[in-house]
Amino acid sequence: MSVAGINVLVDETRARMAQAEPQAGKAPLLSVRGVSAYYGSIRALKGVDVDVHEGEIVALIGANGAGKSTLMMTIFGQPQAREGTITFAGQDITKLPTHEIARLNLAQSPEGRRIFSRMTVRENLQMGAAVNGGRHFAEDLERMCTLFPRLAERIDQRGGTMSGGEQQMLAIARALMSRPRLLMLDEPSLGLAPLVVKQIFSAVRDLNAREGLTVFIVEQNAYHALKLAHRGYVMVNGAVTMSGTGQALLDDPQVKAAYLEGGSH
Ligand SMILES: Nc1ncnc2c1ncn2[C@@H]1O[C@H](COP(=O)(O)OP(=O)(O)OP(=O)(O)O)[C@@H](O)[C@H]1O
Ligand SMILES: [Mg+2]
């Protein structure tokens, strides 16, 4: 067979593999490998492995104090991983300072929202857009107002006077204004009424389905998070103890007993 013929065969095989397994051969967008992090002498993360592939929604669930927020913060370099490697879009970001990580294409809506409370909704969104130089501001403002009509109604209201649910929507919208490749959400449902939680989760599902946005979500609300996610991880005492598809974890007796029974869904 000629070299050209072999190349055609190789290409066909690759195409078939890609069809059978969408992620086959593709490096994860975010890869956390053997990561440990410390607060003083306390080891808050113990050799954590987590992958997030392009186009996926991945959930991380676990009890209070398990280390979920610490993992999110460690990805952002604060605290820095003392062992292991974190790569994003093929770049090793393990030792990058936080301000340089913030310039990459990953955006975070941290636990407790942390919007700019004295700035208006519009100004908060401007701050989010500033990360990528404020290009597409008008267009993205429009998109956010369609996604969260409540923000459109309150565009000139100060962030700090908005309700908890509105502030959460604003925090997510601000993160989206930078047009991230990866959106990381820490407990978006915290303290919110079930209806608002539904609205926020359905906005995230739409963004993923329509625009292919990749999402890494940390949640106490295991039921909603695993329903939303393609895949999930369970964290106990700073270590990942289980992983699988969202549905497999929802059906798992141990997950049911620890995180779903008597839950708020
Ligand atoms: N700045 C800090 N200094 C010292 N210890 C910390 C610090 N931040 C978190 N910890 C500890 O690290 C552990 C993991 O905390 P973390 O906030 O990551 O948990 P979590 O899984 O996000 O919990 P929750 O669901 O309550 O938000 C906890 O024992 C916590 O007390
Ligand atoms: Mg937390």
From TrEMBL:
Keywords: Amino-acid transport, ATP-binding, Nucleotide-binding, Transport
Keyword Ion transport: no
InterPro entries xrefs: AAA+_ATPase, ABC_branched_ATPase_LivF/BraG, ABC_transporter-like_ATP-bd, ABC_transporter-like_CS, BCAA_Transport_ATP-bd_LivF, P-loop_NTPase
Protein's UniProt keywords contain Cell membrane: no
Domain ABC transporter, first and last residues per copy: 30-262
Highest taxon, organism lineage: Bacteria
Molecular function as annotated in GO: ATP binding
PANTHER family: HIGH-AFFINITY BRANCHED-CHAIN AMINO ACID TRANSPORT ATP-BINDING PROTEIN LIVF (PTHR43820)
Protein family according to the UniProt entry: Belongs to the ABC transporter superfamily.
Protein name: Branched-chain amino acid transport system ATP-binding protein
Lineage: Bacteria, Pseudomonadati, Pseudomonadota, Alphaproteobacteria, Hyphomicrobiales
